[in-house]
Amino acid sequence: MFVNDKFNKEEFKAQVKSSVRNLFRKELGEATQQELFQAVSSVVKEWVIDDWIDTQKKFKEQDSKKLYYLSMEFLEGRALGNNLINLCKNDDVKEALSEIGIDLNVLEDQERDPALGNGGLGRLAACFLDSLSTLSYPAYGCGIRYRYGLFKQKIENGFQVEKPDNWLKNGYPFEIKRSEYACEIKFNGYIETQWDGHRNRFIHKGYQSVLAIPYDMPIVGYGNGVINTLRVWDAEPIEEFKLDEFDRGNYQKAVEQTTLANNIVDVLYPNDNHMSGKELRLRQQYFFVSASIQTAVRKYMEEHDDIHKLPEKVVFHMNDTHPTLTVPELMRVLLDDYMLEWDEAWEITTHCCAFTNHTIMAEALEKWPIELFSRLLPRIYQIVEEMNRRFAILINERYSGDQQKHAAMDIIRDGKVRMANMAIVGSYSVNGVAAIHTQILKDEVFHDYFELWPEKFNNKTNGITQRRFLLHANPLEAEWVTEKIGPEWITDLSKMKKLEVFADDKKAQQEFMSIKYKNKLRLARYIKEHNGIDVDPRSIFDVQVKRLHEYKRQLMNILHVMYLYNELKDNPTKDVLPRTFIFGAKAAPGYYRAKMTIKLINAVADVINNDKTINNKLKVVFIEDYKVSNAELIFPAADVSEQISTASKEASGTSNMKFMLNGALTIGTMDGANIEIVEEAGEENAFIFGMSAEEVIRHEKAKDYNPMDIFNSDPEIRKVLMQLINGFYSPDDPERFRDIYNSLLNNHSSGGVADQYFTLKDFRDYCRAHEEIDRRYRDENAWARAAIINIANSGKFSSDRTIEEYVHDIWHLTKLK
């Protein structure tokens, strides 16, 4: 079946019944909901296959330039509903299933979110793949098929507890194993140099190896029949079981290859607080990069005869520093497998590779100890050393041996391989992900490189796919928008601008608020079911959902909740609108302070939610195991979007865009894409507070900020902070939150910087912005007007727009015909 084929309801129902019989040897009425999900997904996959094969034929026939988008994360979300939306068959399938007693919504809840990512980086990659298919550009996503993902978050006694996320427990119906494309990946060992009469050959000996096995997942374009591929690599042993070792009693030796393979793909981002964790991360990175590069080059050479023209047909895009080994691995393939000279290989590599930087945080710019790097990847390290040697010559020539330039720009420095430096040197394009982020890269983080190669640097503001985050997540608003302006927004979000004429329409305002209320009811039911907390859907839903990190300042949010609670206790009759503060976040397993912030949020929730004297004016909810599927309930229900990172620290953010599209108003700093959201929607339709990026950077350089001055001069802030250490929220252990208290006030913590992210500095202005929210929400029509203006001006933040910019400026792809 092709996407444009007419839907035959009776045929579909027969296919579902047949699928249940073939898969489970059951009649329809005997099948469990999980079995029905598997059966329906199997039918949908069959539909997809025809277009998928047809897309691959077009790749070959049109000899299209292909994008390989390499990312450690792809946070795809559930596939069944999204595939039906993009196949334009959702309503037909829903109706047909209902006629045989099956509820599509219930089936969708049977699907486990694929645990192939964690935060914004992985979700961005997923949005990009959706847009690439919808815009008919030929592309592959390349990643790892993690068996257990990051972790499944459980909250026990207020603490985050990490459980394995066994998302493959019931199998995954939308993947196809492609054993014919298996690649051998080599680790450890040593390099032997042999002269072949013309040149040195570098022979890898004494190595351990695993097989990389690809699993392909379809990425369905919206209504156009284009199905691109997300290829995630699993690891299998070269030799699964050594019977001779087993017979000799060496049981561990007998299965060591299986153990090596399993370790590589078990978990996303293993804890790197120890050397074995660091080694596993580096092993993972090389594993999927090498498999992807080997396959891409081999595929190119099956259809072409000149390796020198590879950049005309292939582009490798590195999504942050994790896939930076793309550069030396492509060099290795060209030098060792295709016998090119260094200059030839470098010319090809530096015209094939492009790099997106996603951070300005120094600790997030990966650096690997050379002892580990050279032991694990001996041939790759030789190539990196030669890259560094040649680049050092260029620096010497350009800057007369300036040692400060070497300190900033060398690829290898102070016993470490610096991955961001390697990515910049080896790429023809380097982009940031929001205008301010790119400017900071040019002015601060990578200034020396920008000075050397200004033509490499460009901005590509992030975007999101409106098809998942509005059409699928918020069908009530999607239907309302389509009724007002037509369906063109689904593939061209700039058409949302037409909605602006309804901003002052009282009927439209009431319709919008009614939709928002229904979505809040839906989330309230989820919260009651999962948290056991009753929340008032008429209260302001104030939401912060994102990865937990100090610079994102979830701590400031909960400190403000503590401040509001103190106000209510001091003045129980105070006229304030009821607020429900909703948090969702995972903290990295080894990130102690982030995990204690989760405990603090839950401790505050326990006190506030059980205090009847405040008359339900304040509620706090921490949503466990934040992921794409519950995000699709959260975004449509939000009134207020918390985007409160320290200015200059958040590269872009994308939850800010999802909230905007769903009609939430932003409270935020002028950071990341917040700046561009305000430019589009108007500052009067947001709540901006805090220092600017320039002010933050100035204070950091001057080292002139002392949070103790605020503690001493502001008794209300002092009261909140003292509650961290006087047992108010932790009577069983008054010292529990001492580390958080110290991080805000004492220089000896957090590497010698007190309140590193200026939480107390911005706190009073944050309180002011929240008071403005309380005042503005009282005028329902004015609030609805601001929300509609936000939706109407969300067009810029579609990943479709972002991808078109990448294609035009960096990738130079051609649409499939």
Helix-strand blueprint:
Layout lengths: L8 H16 L8 H29 L4 E5 L9 H7 L3 H10 L4 H7 L9 H15 L4 E6 L7 E5 L2 E5 L12 E2 L5 E5 L2 E6 L4 E6 L2 E13 L6 E11 L5 H5 L3 H4 L1 H11 L8 H29 L6 H4 E6 L6 H12 L4 H11 E4 L10 E3 H7 L1 H22 L3 H7 L2 E2 L2 E3 H8 L2 E4 L2 H11 L1 H6 L4 E3 L6 H7 L2 H11 L20 H26 L8 E6 L8 H17 L8 E6 L7 H18 L8 E5 L5 H10 L2 E4 L11 H7 L3 E4 L5 H8 L5 E2 L4 H10 L4 H7 L1 H8 L15 H8 L13 H19 L2 H13 L6 H13 L6
Quick structural summary:
This protein has 817 residues and is of the alpha/beta class. It has 34 helices and 23 strands.
Features:
817 residues, alpha/beta, ten-stranded mixed β-sheet, 34 helices, 23 strands, 49% helix, 14% strand
Shape: globular
Class from helix and strand fractions: alpha/beta
Assembly state here? single chain
Radius of gyration: 27 Å
**Main sheet characteristics:** 10 strands, mixed
Secondary structure tally: strands: 23
Whole-number average pLDDT? 95
Unreliable residue runs:
none
Please report the distance between the alpha carbons of the first and last residues: 19 Å
Percentage beta strand: 5-15%
Helix content: 40-55%
Count helical runs: 34
Describe this structure as you would to a colleague.
The protein is α/β, with parallel strands linked by helices and 817 residues long. Helix content is 49%, strand content 14%. Strands 1, 2, 5, 6, 9, 10, 11, 12, 16 and 17 form a 10-stranded mixed sheet that branches. A 6-stranded parallel sheet has the order 20-19-18-21-22-23, sandwiched between helices. A 3-stranded antiparallel sheet has the order 13-15-14. Strand 18, helix 23 (554-570) and strand 19 form a beta-alpha-beta unit. Helix 1 (9-24) crosses helix 2 (33-61), helix 3 (80-86) crosses helix 20 and helix 10 (275-303) packs across helix 12. The radius of gyration is 27 Å and the shape is globular. It starts with 8 loop residues before the first helix and ends in a 6-residue tail after the last helix. The mean pLDDT is 95.
